[in-house]
Design a protein that fits this description.
The complex is a heterodimer of chains A (196) and B (179). With 196 residues, chain A is α+β, with helices and mostly antiparallel strands. Helices cover 23% and strands 31% of the residues of chain A. Chain A has one domain: START domain (Alpha-D-Glucose-1,6-Bisphosphate, Chain A, domain 4). Chain A has 4 helices and 7 strands, in the order βαββββββααα. In chain A, strand 3 and strand 4 (91-102) form a beta hairpin. The longest helix of chain A is centred in the last third of the chain and has 18 residues, at 161-178. Chain A is globular and about 45 Å long. Chain B has 179 residues and is of the alpha+beta class. Chain B has helices spanning 39-45, 93-96, 112-119, 153-156, 170-176, and strands at 2-8, 11-16, 28-35, 56-57, 62-69, 80-83, 86-87, 125-126, 143-146. A 4-stranded antiparallel β-sheet of chain B has the order 6-5-3-9. In chain B, strands 2-1-4 form a 3-stranded antiparallel β-sheet, with no helix packed on it. Chain B has a two-stranded antiparallel sheet with strand order 7-8. In chain B, strand 1 and strand 2 form a beta hairpin. Chain B is globular, with a radius of gyration of 15 Å. The model of chain B is unreliable at 153-179 (pLDDT under 50). Classes of the chains: A alpha+beta (196), B alpha+beta (179). The A-B interface holds A 44, 46, 132-133, 163, 166-168, 170-171, 173-174, 177-191 and B 17-21, 23-26, 57, 72, 87, 89-93, 96, 104-113, 122, 125, 134-137, 145, 147-148.
């Protein structure tokens, strides 16, 4: 029998299910980690892996389901310029570069020096069992709240990056499975105000 | 339009509110011709259901005439339709198994947290039944916006025979039929 008093083995659960965000355990899963707060989430989407990868790989599609992103524009060589909503009608910006790109499997990115909010992350696409489509896992590492950046982060991630990642992935699932994003708004004006 | 709005325990009022509009491609707007008060509405009226907000429009059993359609709706203006109270997408794992009340996508993303916490998974949306079930405006009103209006009877029994007029089905339609 195992000694019950023996120390627990280190947490080897997948990043998306662990209770604690231990960044050091991510090892080389992220390129040059930018920031030290972690958000990670997985969603099952009833669509083929290649289709989901292709949609996500075109970063200009991301503002359609990530509600705090104003725009993502390609600036060449796998780099993209991001504009994200900040408090008081302001925005924060940075340039991200793709550091690893395996078709239909994985996209890894990191912000370049000078980013308003340093961040990095990866998105993984795996076949789900039982013909259920694809497991999509997003892992985002970013600078934690503090000062003006803290306010930005609070807005970006609705105060908790796990919540934002969860909701953005749900919207991604809705867009892929239904072609639209569910809303209970009754008028177009209410719908627009919802997105601000 | 005029609509029945909830303001608190034992406080519902018929008020003038903004008309609903087409927002998503699969939406339709229905002009309501008959609507019902369900026993479940009493839970809202008596204040037992959490996540109600002042001004919410009640009503989850209704029928009417299609007056406007989004570009991806398969309904036609003038069709008479019966609207079940679940709001389901027709494209997710559960909908493909005809388990519409367990739909993954019927709730807006921000409204899925409560159901996911309580039940482990989000559920479908419901018309006029608190924000835990999506915060959708209900059908005790002159008009209602119906999301995912293209889910047809052969997949969902959502619409009761558009060509000959609305065909009652189940307890819901029985009430609506006025019989």
């Amino acid at each position: 029998m195992a000694d019950k008093k023996a120390p627990l083995p280190s947490d080897d659960a997948p990043l998306t299910t662990r209770k604690e965000d231990r960044i050091e355990q991510m090892g080389d899963q992220l390129p040059e980690p930018q920031g030290d707060a972690l958000a990670s989430k997985t969603v099952t989407i009833s669509r083929p892996r290649a289709e989901l990868y292709a949609f996500w790989r075109d970063f200009t599609n991301l503002p359609r389901f990530m509600e705090n992103i104003v725009s993502v524009e390609p600036v060449g060589e796998g780099r993209t310029h991001w504009t994200v909503k900040a408090p008081a009608g302001k925005t924060v910006e940075w340039i991200s570069a793709i550091t690893e790109d395996r078709p239909d499997e994985t996209i890894v990115w990191a912000s370049e020096d000078g980013a308003d909010v340093p961040n990095s992350g990866r998105i993984d696409f795996r076949d789900a069992p039982g013909g259920r489509g694809t497991w999509v896992s997003a892992t985002i590492l970013y600078d934690p709240p503090g000062g003006i950046i803290g306010k930005v982060i609070a807005k970006m991630f609705q105060r908790e990056p796990g919540i934002q990642a969860r909701r953005d992935l749900r919207r991604f699932k809705q867009l892929m499975e239904t072609g639209e994003i569910a809303t209970s708004a009754r008028t177009r004006q209410a719908h627009e105000e919802e997105e601000v | 339009m005029r609509a029945l709005t909830w303001h608190g325990k034992h406080d519902v009022r018929v008020e003038t509110v903004d008309d609903p509009e087409i927002i998503n491609p699969r939406d339709a707007i229905i002009r309501i011709t008959s609507t019902a008060i369900c026993g479940s509405d009493l839970h809202l009226y008596d204040g037992y259901i959490p996540t109600m907000k002042a001004g919410d429009i009640l009503g989850h059993e209704f029928m009417g005439e299609v007056v406007e359609t989004g570009p991806s709706s398969t309904l036609k203006k003038g069709q008479r339709v019966v609207v079940p109270f679940t709001i389901a997408c027709g494209g997710c794992f559960h909908c493909n198994k005809h388990q519409y009340s367990a739909c993954d996508n019927g709730l807006p993303a921000d409204n899925q947290d409560i159901a996911q916490t309580i039940y482990g998974q989000p559920m479908s949306g419901l018309f006029g039944y608190s924000h835990m079930t999506g915060g959708y405006a209900g059908g005790q009103a002159e008009y209602v916006r119906v999301p995912f209006s293209d889910i047809r009877p052969d997949r969902h029994s959502r619409w009761g025979g558009g060509r000959q007029g609305a065909v009652p089905f189940g307890h819901l339609a029985h009430r609506l039929d006025g019989s």
